[in-house]
């Protein structure tokens, strides 16, 4: 049972039950406010009837020409609210980016659960980005993509054969 | 004025300065700037960058001289202006940026860029009127939509902050007219412009106009596909129940999980039911049946039935609707209208509705999930159990967890926890040490289970063991905004558990976070204008204000709570916040008084100190009055709940038998009297404190005597001890101030034996006496520490035996409690040792 509404500043004070999940990053404050100021329509939260945050998506629309696409910066669903289809609901928001050719996202190669979920939602591994996540040791990312209807020939989702370095990712 | 027109050369020369600034090497940046200025001494951009480097090197005054000279020249090139803006921003002189750009646009009146910077400079200082003027000026020669709406938004903000209702009305009407004109000229372009228009109409409560606009072709063109959803709140406001019913029903056909559609839908149904029963009945049935036919794993239709049940409970029998509604995690959602008795009577139905009871032994992850959900729902509605029953249930739940562990049903990995963990979480109502052992076991197998971590932090603090709590808190990796929303859990308990050093560290991190944010919060407002996100603008400025103000930012819902509703304390958040604020005020008064003591300790003649002396007395008076008032206000003991904050420190502080009010007031007065050479009064104060100290020791001894279970009372006793330790810290510091007043360091250096008057000799004697009395107090405290009780858990072996599955796992609880206690005591001993050494150095 879900209310979908825009993420607000005050949600940052109550997203702990989602963000304490080890694979959900808590960013610096200005990272969130920057998204709120720039792409509020792609920063949405799913809320339970009791007002608890069940999950949220943080995204943006960017790129020039045929590279105009929706990018998922963060997608997370609290442990108690998984397997209810919330991630798919949230992803729809980014897949509705006006006139976008595709939607893309980065995910840790070790995050099997998320990768499978994205695959089920129609995403493919477009390329591997080497040592994208810093840590000990650094971890590679999959750049996953799904073509939107505007990309008639599905040009955006032809996988690259070679991995790329983070500096080559625009 | 030296304008270098060859931009390329200038840029190349300036580049190295920027590079050094970027990597934070301000010294090199300064050198590089000087180098450029040698060749072109008047180059404004280089001077602006030099000022920035100087400022960042801490040479604020020198930087200011350069900036002022530059400002007088009224620069208008972008590089110079940007660099100066940064300097002004970092030195909190935002109003000067406005002046800078006001002058710049005068020299280049049609420069769009400069005008837009001028507008943003007003945004940073919140000057809405000037914003409006700047935006309109900009729109006149660059007629672009954003500039026009910047002006509209600036008017809205003037209206929102206006206290004069007539003025507010006029401003809003003006803003509306501006947008109306644009609409009639077909100039609207963006979704945010439409939203701003709705905001303006909302502020005027013109619900019908909003509805008309939302239903217009223009709105669907600007915000495609959202008309139905957007109209809901306004249909409700206007009481158009039939239309609301239709709109929500339509939306629900395609979105069965949307609570935000069900609630207004039910609102409409129940309203219509009153008017025309037959009609309304058909709508309920129809949609409920539709919901039941859903084959997906959505919770919506089920919870909707519960909501319906709750609403039907007013009349009729809703129990027939109970069923597979328990597929979610937490059920606090549905707050029961039923009486407590009725609820408790039905509670077992929650447990048994899926065919389980407390002794069921499900074998699959899904069934375990269902079982724990039933158990949780049952606990939420059942009557509070007598302690024997609670212990028995905790034992059963522990048994479930261990069974799952043995059968490989605990399937957690490093990043995910599993349903079976919840048996352990639910069993945390067991006796505390047993709960600690079980939760540590859960965490050992499910390192990602933050519920276990949060509970462990709370439970270790319940035993007053801040270091053990810290071992778990570190694993929560609390950072950034979480420092303020979650930090209370740990931070507030460190000092009262006598762990001052860790408290200091965590508070410093939190303060750094808030300070850093304070600096950049205005920048987000400029982004919001840049991207035309007007709705967020209001929100972002309220947010910045909230973080700067003393607001309650604690997230109290993060800890799982299965206490039945009669234990839910509605006022808890407000009350505990109020207590913390009162405590801070007391501490603030103390700190202000101490700061005044330091001011009074300088070498000015006595006459010049009168002002500060008066202020100190006022401060002491305010502190005393507040202590007395708080003692009356906070006389009652608070109930301890595992999911709520612990009682504020103010309760133990103001209710202490140790006379802190007199102790602090008198020692502070001593410094004041000494500072203005009122010798007799100083002598009185000095003797009064010395007399109070031995009594205070006795009172403390009483306060921290073990009453009842030594393990359980550890937290309270440590808190009492911490209050006394803080006093010892302050009195030691103030004796240092007295020493500075009585025999300044400068006088000592001369090593000349000066003859003292009898009064001075008396002062010296009395200060020595007080010093010795404080040292005696410290020795007394050291003795207390040596005798401090251990965490003796008589049945530890028995507890561990209950949890033993194999020999490989060693419960860390006993060791954490022991080393936590020992290390904390050593920490306190070291602090006391330092105080003692310092006091000895003060003896004349």
Summarize the structure.
The complex is a heterodimer of chains A (170) and B (844). Chain A is an alpha+beta fold and 170 residues long. Chain A has helices spanning 16-19, 29-38, 86-95, 112-120; strands spanning 3-6, 43-47, 53-62, 69-77, 102-108, 124-133, 139-147.
Instruction: Name the pair of protein chains with the most residues at their interface, and give those residue counts.
Output: A-B, 46 and 62 residues
Chain oligomer state: heterodimer
- Which whole number gives the mean pLDDT of chain B? 88
Shape of chain A: globular
- Enumerate how many helices of chain A there are, as a single number: 4
Tell me the Rg of chain B in angstroms. 34 Å
SS strand fraction of chain B: under 5%
Total helices of chain B: the number is 39
The percentage of residues in β strands of chain A lies in 25-35%
CATH superfamily of the largest domain in chain A: Gcn5-related N-acetyltransferase (GNAT)
**Main sheet makeup of chain A:** 7 strands, mixed
Topology summary:
The complex is a heterodimer of chains A (170) and B (844).
Chain A: E1 3-6, H1 16-19, H2 29-38, E2 43-47, E3 53-62, E4 69-77, H3 86-95, E5 102-108, H4 112-120, E6 124-133, E7 139-147
Parallel strand pairs in A: 4-5
Antiparallel strand pairs in A: 1-2, 2-3, 3-4, 5-7, 6-7
Chain B: H1 7-22, H2 26-39, H3 44-56, H4 60-72, H5 78-90, H6 94-107, H7 112-125, H8 128-141, H9 145-161, H10 165-184, H11 191-203, H12 207-214, H13 217-222, H14 227-237, H15 241-254, H16 259-275, H17 277-292, H18 300-312, H19 340-352, H20 365-381, H21 387-406, H22 421-426, H23 432-445, H24 450-462, H25 466-476, H26 482-485, H27 488-494, H28 500-530, H29 534-548, H30 572-600, H31 610-633, H32 649-654, H33 660-675, H34 679-703, H35 714-742, H36 745-750, H37 758-786, H38 796-803, H39 813-842
